[in-house]
């Protein structure tokens, strides 16, 4: 495994992001709420970054995208103080600290944005991801039964984790 670097997600990462998303197991895409394999979804993400609704980070290893983290917020809504974290790591790069580095990086962004609460949603069977978030102080706040459906129509419970920021 080579060394990776983490930086902001930008427009010229579009094709690398699509390749990354296409290589992910479909189940990993479930808790994003949108299909990241679609170019228009990536385009919308980049527009939201420009508009200040999303902060995105990418992890690159030899110019290949191996992980990404996003901080999604609604500056105009009742929950403007809350940010939702979305984290994805390439299947063959898991368990080596990359997810933790991305998560810590996006938490720093949240602190800089003066947010007071963070949330993350994932299917209940994403044990590795849940353990990672719990290790950084997140706790389960809700479990939504049969809340998401995969490509084959099977329903999965969604777990909502949260933590307060100082």
TrEMBL record:
<dbReference type="InterPro" id="IPR000182">
    <property type="entry name" value="GNAT_dom"/>
</dbReference>
<dbReference type="GO" id="GO:0016747">
    <property type="term" value="F:acyltransferase activity, transferring groups other than amino-acyl groups"/>
</dbReference>
<protein>
    <submittedName>
        <fullName>GNAT family N-acetyltransferase</fullName>
    </submittedName>
</protein>
<dbReference type="InterPro" id="IPR016181">
    <property type="entry name" value="Acyl_CoA_acyltransferase"/>
</dbReference>
<dbReference type="Pfam" id="PF00583">
    <property type="entry name" value="Acetyltransf_1"/>
</dbReference>
<dbReference type="InterPro" id="IPR050832">
    <property type="entry name" value="Bact_Acetyltransf"/>
</dbReference>
<feature type="domain" description="N-acetyltransferase">
    <location>
        <begin position="4"/>
        <end position="166"/>
    </location>
</feature>
<keyword id="KW-0808">Transferase</keyword>
<keyword id="KW-0012">Acyltransferase</keyword>
